Amino acid sequence: MLILSVIPKYRTMKEYKVIGAMSGTSLDGLDLAYCHFTYHEQKWNYKIIAAETVEYESEWKNRLFKAPDISTVDLAALDFEFGRFIGKNVTNFIGLYELENPDFIASHGHTVFHQPEKGFTLQIGSGAAIAAASGITSICDFRSTDVALGGQGAPLVPVGDELLFGEYDFCLNLGGFANISFLYDVKRYAYDVCAVNTLLNYLAAKKGLSFDKNGELGKRGKQNETLLEKLNSLPYFLQNSPKSLGREWLEEEVLPLFENSGISIEDQIRTAYKHIALQIISAMMPRDFKKIKALVTGGGAYNSYLTDLLRKLSTDEFYIPDKQIIDFKEALIFAFLGVLRWRNEVNCLASVTGAKHDSVGGCVYLAGEI
Questions:
Q1: Is residue 140 located within the same domain as residue 203?
Q2: Exposed e or buried b for every residue in 10-37, given b needs 16+ CB within 10 A?
Q3: Torsion (CA) 122, 123, 129, 134 in degrees, nearest 10
Q4: Above 80 in pLDDT, residue 26?
Q5: Which of 10, 148, 267, 282 is the most exposed place for a label (fewest CB within 10 A)?
Q6: Type and span of the H or E element at 335
Q7: Are 269 and 199 in contact (CB under 8 A)?
Q8: pLDDT at residue 287, rounded to an integer
Q9: pLDDT 10s digits, 91-127
Q10: Cis amide leading into 102 (omega within 30)
Q11: Is 6 buried (19+), middle (13-18) or exposed (0-12) by CB count in 10 A?
């Protein structure tokens, strides 16, 4: 009775103020975006009011990185502790920018396990803990319903690509993994393409760097054809969509090829860049457009060496938007997925994930006195 009495109020609203929270696989930090959405003349519009990235201190970075290997009891505790961390930082964020409390928080959480082929996925950051720590109703766990329906549980961003960024032919995100989203024959399709920052950061760390700024390490190396051929021949790249990637695939299928290559780190990184660019361009090939316009976001959009390589190998237009969209597009869209969840409207597309049907994903945790 309680849920039914609350949600219809939000379904009739024409505007929403929501904080989107996103923690990516590259472990850069917690992205927070305070977003204003309006629905007018059958079209959604958005504005990011404020946004920031809460960088993870080394302790949190290590704990999240090691999460897949800890005990079930410790993982359950980490789930709640990370939820409290999110809730606390949302409260600080609201105070710092002098914002009014949003209608709700929509949190992606942090992916620890993603194995849809085995029927499960896990993003930690308890919604109950977020709501309790912030005093704001929170929505989390957007992927599990789709996985339960036989889908990949990813990517989820394409709904936002279609409803908020429909003027672009392709949306390309260069995050921990590259993923693309596009409309074809009246259906939205999307999938993970390959590892990007998770791989490049791993290799840069071997030279004592957290990342390879503008490809400086890669520029000093030489492309290795043997390694490049092995990378491009991995079975994943021959699979049809829907498909998605996780840390497990990187560690089991990709990193051993680099570890056993016997070449310098600079040569490994140079070869990784070429592999990434070729896989992205190949993924964007099956289309009817003569020349496409692709929106490029995610941390990789700042890597001039990578974006220049994409332009060099393709005749398509790669549009890089303003810094706010580059950094916070995913947080923005997860805020929007929360809006759709409140309205009980589809926020996960079967054409993207391969599930039995479209679904409404997300668990709602009410906050405050009832």
A1: no
A2: beeeeebbbbbbbbbbbbbbbbbbbbeb
A3: -160
A4: no
A5: 282
A6: helix 323-342
A7: no
A8: 59
A9: 999 999 999 999 999 999 999 998 999 999 999 999 9
A10: no
A11: middle
How does the average pLDDT of the chain come out, rounded?
Answer: 92
CA dihedral sign of residues 344, 348, 354, 355 = negative
Residue with tokens 């679904």, as numbered in its chain: 359
Of the candidates 250, 248, 240, 241, the one whose C-alpha atom is nearest the C-alpha of residue 120 is 248
User: Before 155, cis peptide (omega within 30)?
Assistant: yes
Residue 48 tokens, joined: 């990011």
- Residue type (1 letter), 103: D
36 in helix, strand or coil?
A: strand
Residues 17, 175: Cα–Cα separation, whole Å: 26
Q: Are residues 130 and 146 in the same domain?
A: yes
DSSP-derived letter for residue 99 is P
pLDDT at 3: 41
11's tokens: 């379904």
Q: Which helix (H) or strand (E) holds 131?
A: helix 127-134
Domain span at residue 32? 2-153+328-365
Residue 243 lies in a domain: yes
Dihedral sign computed on CA atoms, order 308, 198, 58, 78: positive
Q: Kindly state whether residue 240 falls inside one of the protein's structural domains.
A: yes
CATH number at residue 7: 3.30.420.40
Q: How far apart are CA 211 and CA 144, in angstroms?
A: 32
Residue type, 290: K
pLDDT digits over 232-260, tens only?
999 999 999 888 888 889 999 999 999 99
CA dist list (Å): 106 to 18, 35, 69, 146, 192: 7, 11, 27, 17, 22
Query: What pTM was estimated for this model as a whole?
Result: 0.83
